[in-house]
Amino acid sequence: METELDLFKWKQYESEIILLTIRWYLKYSLSYRNLVEMMEERGLHMAHTTIMRWVHQFGPELDKRIRPFLKPTNDSYRTDETYIKVKGQWKYLYRAVDSNGNTIDFMLSENRDTSAARRFFKKTLTSPHNQSPRVITVDKNPAYPIAVQQLKDEKALNQETLLRQQKYLNNIIEQDHRFIKKVIKLMMGFKSFNTAEKTIAGIEVMHMIKKGQVECIHSYVLSAVQLINKMFGLTA
């Protein structure tokens, strides 16, 4: 993890302004050019490519730094993939929430197959705020049963873990996709898989904060600002 000094070194703008523009971009349905205009109204002149670089740099950093603050999720996984356009082609965003709608994890993938499903479940199990699943609810994608059985064979998943392939039970994750898709909509697709991955990481963090998944969040708006500033060493 980069230090605060490394992250903000040689930047033309104050760290608070950088985090403000990143937070707004990842939280609302705004384009980079919308943000340029909003900053100009405040007497700050910056190129849209500058904000874009900040988002690509800080999106993954937000994801790393939020993990220790996340409340535990429960052991009922609701898993699904949604489509994300990258360089004009559809890619697959694997996402899981628990039965209360809290985000368990996410992963952008080039493919929608057993290997991708397996990698996604392994990722969910590495985050300290997640429990090993008692039940995993998925749609009829045939890759899921194979991936789950492989993980059971490797002892990465408990043998007792139940896999349910019942699409109607997954309404909660399908509804949750909507926030992510809404924010991404104005982005007009991503130019590369790498930048898509970095940007989506930041969007997912803002969504988790909004859903109240952070231990120290009470009053959302002000506390979210304070939390992000604190994660980057900007508050006492």
Automatic annotation (TrEMBL):
Protein name (record): IS6 family transposase
Domain named Integrase catalytic: residues: 64-236
InterPro entries: DDE_dom, Integrase_cat-core, IS_Transposase, RNaseH-like_sf, Transpos_IS6
Organism: Paenibacillus gyeongsangnamensis
Key words, A-Z: DNA recombination, DNA-binding, Transposition
